[in-house]
Structure formats: structure tokens, C-alpha cells
Amino acid sequence: MSIQAPPTLLELAGRSLLMDNQRAILALEDLPIELFPPLFMEAFTRGHTEVLKEMVQAWPFTCLPLGALMKEPHLGMLQVALEGLDMLLTQRDRPRRWRLQVLDLRNAHQNFWRMWTGNVADACSSEAKNKNQTLKLPTVVAKEPLKVFIDVCLTEGPLDEFQTNLYLWVKQRRDVLHLCCKKLTFFAKPNCHTRKFLKILDLNAVQKVEVHCSWKLSTLAVVAPFLGHMRNLRTLLLSHIRGSASTSSEKKERLIAQFTSQCLRMDCLQKFYANAVFFLEGHLDQVLRHLKNPLKTLSITNCQLSDSDWHYLSQYPNTSQLKLLDLRGVELTTFSPEPLRILLEKVAATLKTLDLEDCEITDSQLQALLPALSCCSQLKTFSFFGNHISMPVMRDLLCRTARLSLLGLELYPAPLESYDAHGAIHLGRFSQLCAELTAIVRDVRESKLLVFSTAPCPQCGHQLLYNLGLGRCSCPAPA
After folding, report:
1. Which of 147, 190, 319, 400 could serve as 374's disulfide partner, Cβ 3.0–4.6 Å?
2. In angstroms, rounded to a whole number, what is the distance separating the alpha carbons of residues 87 and 59?
3. 406, 447 contact by CB (below 8 A)
4. Is the pLDDT assigned to residue 137 strictly greater than 90?
């Protein structure tokens, strides 16, 4: 059983002061600013709402990270904070010590509260430096709109109670505050409720958009104008954008153009993820050509690409500084490896993560890629599961990657010789071949995590992993 630490002198002083709310409120005018955070936490924890309202108005820092104190949206405390802000925003002459510019309702800035309560050792130089910097506050010379930061997750149905209350409050005060969101996540198709919420957001503040649900192309076209107003968008993730058999080719092209035309306005985009996005085939150039800055991440997974797409990708100038290239599930069997070889040569100096899992790459294709792959000197993660490679070519591959000194995670397929004529894994042969391949790497450098995987069992989906412990499939072997 753990022993609870006794309250500190600072906590005891805060509790003593809060025993008389009126006295606590009067003390705020002359309260040293280093006592504000611990007193605020004490008032928040013990529900001293009137003191909290006054503390919001007198808050001596530029940011009030209220969300870090709420494990989940707390409507009661949110209402108290908003009432305090209302009183502040309506004042003609703001308090002498007024500094507040941001109310942060995200679960962030945990260190801010810890460093003021002593939970982080003051001996830690970085925290001490941050504390000193926090005291050096800029003088606010004009009334600027107050910013309220939240993370927005839009789901099916109407807005939840927290979002509804915040929406109504912000809508009535749009001239004096901005509702800002750095990360916007969709878990359902946008409806009338989510669209009206998007209309009150300061879209310039959005830096990351993720779509984790299935949308029709027409839905993406509806959301596209909102994306076009996100001039500081840095990350865009699209997943499962599907077509409709009833959509004519003319309408399909028009809907695609409604999305790609907005890419022209994404001046800051650095990371693009597309998973199971059907319209990329034959249109990759329309999506990428408008982007102005070099991409750091390009992830195109479980998509079909055309010859023209591969050719464009190899020539596209904004891939020259890629740090992550993910092509999982993009079948390469019927394509020339030349465009991918050119792309790997182009990014050899910067690429840190390469994922070619389940690309159906063959021996001849891999042999064409090996010279370029061996030049990727910064590579730290290489995933190659799910490809059909023979033992001789696997030896060549491991001889090349063994010289990549930064590789920390290596995922390879079982050599084709590990399987019998029926496609079933031969456990002894699999172990023997993987041991030989592992030795190739360890004779040159230390391998942090090097794993070989069999193809999934067609009956149960079980995979055997060498170097992570060999499991055994329980399905009956073929006759």
C-alpha cells in the first residue's frame, strides 16, 4: 500500500487562503505570480468557482492551459472559466496584470503545472530555464482577439454537449475571440452539425487533418473548400475514399478537380497520407503538382497506381527531401522498377523510413532496386514483409542492408525456399534460412530488431516470426 505524501507548505498556504473566498479574491491583486498556478490548481481541485472566475481574469501568463487539469471535458469547470473570460472581455480597462491571450482546452502543457508545484525537480535545468522564461512576460499593448484552443474530433450525429456549449459561446463572441484547432479528426461523414462547427473555427490555425472513416468522393469534394482555407496545414491524412459505380466519368473528374484545386492553397503541407484512396490512380500528378514545399512524408498505401503515376512520382521535385516513404499494399509486380529506383536514388541522403510491405515485389525487381537502396545511408526503419523473394536474392539484400549502419528496425519476408510445394511453411527450413540471413547482418553490425515473417496462414491468418519467438500454426497440414 502506497503512503500518500504530506501536503507541502505551499499547498497548506493555498488551502488556508481559500478558506475565505473573499479574502482570496482580494489577495489576487498583490499575489506573487509564482503562486498563481498552485493556488489555481487548489481552487480547481476543491471547486472554489468564484475564486476561479477571478483568477481567470487576473491570470498573469499569456496561456491558461485549463485542458491539462481536466482528464475529460468538465462542463462545470469549463462554464466557470468561460464566465470569467466573459467578465474579462467586457471590461473597458483590463486588469493591470492582464496577460492572457490563449485559453487552451487541450490535454497539453502538463509540464506547466508540474514545474510550479514542485513535482518536477528544480534541479532539472531545462525546467528551471522554462520557469524563468515564463516570468519574463511581454507587455500587451492592444486588445487582440483571445484564442481558445481545442482538439476537434467530429463523429456521427450531433455535436456532444461540450462541443455544443463551446459552439454557442464562441458564436456569440466571434468579434473578440477565435476558436482555434491544430488537429482536426473526422470519424464520420460530415453533417449539418459538423459543418456549422467548422464555420466558426479559425481554419488558419489547423495544422493537421485526419480522416479515419469511409467517405465518398463527393463528401471529400464538399469538405475541400474548408481544406483550402487551412493555409497552415502541415499534415493531411485521407483514408478509404471510395467511388460510386453510378457516378459518370465526367462527374468523377469534376469532383476530383474540386479537391485538387484546393491543394494549390496548401502552402505549408509537409506530410501527405493516402490509404485506400481510389481516385489517385491516374491522378497523382493533379494532387501533388500544386504543393509548393518539399514533402517530408509521403504515404500512399493500399492504392492502385498507373504507369503515369509512377513516372510522375520519380520526376516530382518535391519528393527530394523525403524522410518517410510508405508504399504498403501498392502492387508493383506488373510495373517496371525503374521509377522507384530513381525515387530511391533521389531521397537517399534524407530517407529514414521505407515501407515496401505487401508490394508483391519479385526477385528481378528487387535486384534492380538494390543499388539505390544500398545508398540510403540515413535509413533507420525498413519494412519489406509480404514480398516473394528467393534465398539467393535475400542474401544479396541482407549483404546490402548490413552496411546501413543506422538501421534499427528491419522486417523481411521468409525466403521462398521456406515453403513446401503446397505453400505450407517448413519450420525447420525456415529457421535454418533465417539464421543464415541473420548471421550476414550480425557479422557486419549489431542488429537492434531484425525479424523474418512467413506469409499468413490461409486458414487462420497466423504468421511465424523469426527472432521474435517462433509460434506454430495449429491448422492441419495439407495432405
Report:
1. 400
2. 13
3. no
4. no
Grid cell, residue 383, equals: 519494412
DSSP SS3 for 413: strand
∠ Cα 415 421 422 (to 5°): 105
- pTM here? 0.86
Q: Report the greatest alpha carbon distance in the chain.
A: 88
How much is the average pLDDT of 333-352?
A: 96
Q: What percent of the chain has pLDDT over 70?
A: 86
Reading the block at residue 423, the C-alpha cell is 505453400
Distance from C-alpha of 423 to C-alpha of 421, rounded to nearest angstrom: 6
Residue 230, exposed/middle/buried by CB under 10 A (0-12, 13-18, 19+)? buried
pLDDT tens-digit map of 147-165: 999 989 988 888 888 888 8
DSSP 334-397: TS-SHHHHHHHHHHTTT--EEE-TT----HHHHHHHHHHHTT-TT--EEE-TT----HHHHHHH
Reported residue count of the chain is 479
Q: Are 69 and 38 in contact (CB under 8 A)?
A: no
Q: Is 141 exposed, middle or buried (0-12, 13-18, 19+ CB in 10 A)?
A: exposed
Q: What is the mean pLDDT of residues 460-479?
A: 66
The Cα 251–Cα 442 span in angstroms is: 56
Backbone angles phi, psi at 344, to 5 degrees: -65, -40
In 3D space, the residue among 183, 339, 358 whose CA is nearest the CA of residue 276 turns out to be 358
With a CB cutoff of 8 Å and minimum separation 6, the contacts of 204 are 229, 230, 231, 232
Reading the block at residue 161, the C-alpha cell is: 454537449
Residue 326's DSSP bridge partners are 299, 355
CB of 410 within 8 A of CB of 444? no
Closest CA to 310 of 346, 335, 274: 335
Half-sphere exposure of 366 (CA within 13 A, CB side): 24
pLDDT for position 473: 56
Helix (H) or strand (E) holding 213: none
> What is the spatial distance between Cα 159 and Cα 74, in angstroms, rounded to a whole number?
16
DSSP bridge pairs for 11: none
Q: How many CB atoms lie within 10 A of CB 114?
A: 14
3-state secondary structure of 185: strand
Three cell numbers, residue 217:
468522393
Q: Which of 77, 66, 154, 73 is nearest to 110 (CA)?
A: 66
